[in-house]
Design goal:
The structure is a single chain. The protein contains three helices and 22 strands. The chain is globular and about 65 Å long. The longest helix is centred in the last third of the chain and has 8 residues, at 320-327. By secondary structure, the chain is mainly β. A hairpin with a 2-residue loop joins strand 18 and strand 19 (273-275).
Length: 329
């Protein structure tokens, strides 16, 4: 008599504390993963997957919760992988192909746990570039084609709902020369049934917590610089108990003049409020009253000659009671 045990391919924690996926031992091995602890009451293994090959040719992501890393990570690509001498040449492109794990996958989320490649030049990614292709039309309309510098702690939602089952998304990291660049990107796939994780259609970034920080691309690190020609939407999950959002900027430096933003200026739009220039609201603070979904439009101009920093804004959803307390004498 044989006992057949079935279990879901859920998220699990690997022996080193990272994220993995619960598979049978055979499934994990066949997909190129590594057994890193048990799951499903011991019937499965927590399958760890990381792509950190020296190869500049295409590497394929076949397991959910896969980490894409430079060779030798956590060291940079030049010093961390002494055997990768062939990668130390001009204009090397590292390509990663992400296959849908099932036909019901609607979105892929990329978490840039650490990402530092060459800085932009006046907002243009002339020295190194991360480019993403293969997403469906919803994401293609807003996905920046120029991403570089520091993207650590940023994330992106890529819509793949309209892609065929055998469709794929491609990440390409092009370096003029290998040096101090490094990257560690977590790739997660969400199926149509995982409604609590799916971002609203059209949101390139989606913050699900009631408090957090939203930054312009390359808005972190020691030398932030706004990237040019971006137009996308940042969304914050709605909480029916909250009635407005308190915003506080630690960095806010965009093109244009506050109070008279033009079509060509860098800007962010929060409901009926358009913000540009060197100050967010009053003294870098602003209350955003609820007027529908929490969706922030981010638009940057064609040039950044003054090398404006961009923005880093903390947000906090507030209840009506909290708002009343703050306004009372």
């Amino acid at each position: 008599m044989f006992q057949i045990v079935k279990f879901n391919n859920d998220v699990c924690t690997t022996s080193d504390g990272n994220m993995g996926t619960c598979y049978t031992e055979a499934e994990c091995k066949d997909a190129g993963g590594t057994d890193s602890g048990s799951c499903a009451s011991g019937f499965g293994v927590c399958c760890a997957a990381a792509l950190d090959s020296c190869s500049a040719t295409s590497s394929e992501v076949r397991i959910n919760n896969t980490y894409i890393r430079n060779a030798g990570y956590p060291s940079d690509i030049a010093t961390g992988a002494p055997t990768c001498s062939t990668a130390r040449q001009a204009s090397t492109t590292y390509t990663y192909t992400i296959k849908k794990i099932s036909s019901t996958v609607e979105q892929i989320r990329l978490d840039f746990l650490e990402f530092e490649i060459d800085a932009p030049a006046m907002g243009s990614c002339a020295n190194s570039t991360l480019s993403i292709t293969g997403v469906d039309a919803v994401t293609m309309m807003t996905l920046p084609t120029n991403l570089c510098g520091v993207l650590t702690d940023q994330h992106l939602y890529l819509s793949v709902k309209d892609l065929a089952t055998d469709g794929s998304v491609t990440l390409s990291i092009t370096l003029n020369a290998a040096g101090t660049q490094k990257w560690n990107i977590l790739v997660r796939q969400y199926e149509s049934s995982q409604t609590e994780y799916l971002a609203p259609r059209g949101c390139l970034q989606y913050h699900r917590a009631d408090a957090g920080v939203m930054m312009s691309m390359n808005g972190g690190g020691g030398n932030p610089e706004l990237l040019t020609d971006h137009m996308y939407t940042v969304c914050i999950a709605q909480n029916d108990k909250m009635c407005d959002v308190a915003l506080t900027a630690s960095t806010f430096m965009l093109g244009g003049t506050a109070g008279s933003c033009t079509a060509a200026d860098d800007k962010i739009v929060l409901g009926a409020s358009t913000q540009c220039g060197a100050t967010l609201g009053t003294s870098n603070s602003l209350t955003w009253p609820y007027s529908g979904a929490y969706q922030i439009s981010v638009m940057t101009g064609a040039t950044n000659t003054p090398m404006n920093d961009g923005f880093s804004i903390g947000f906090l959803l507030r209840s009506e009671e909290h708002t009343s307390e703050l306004q009372s004498p």
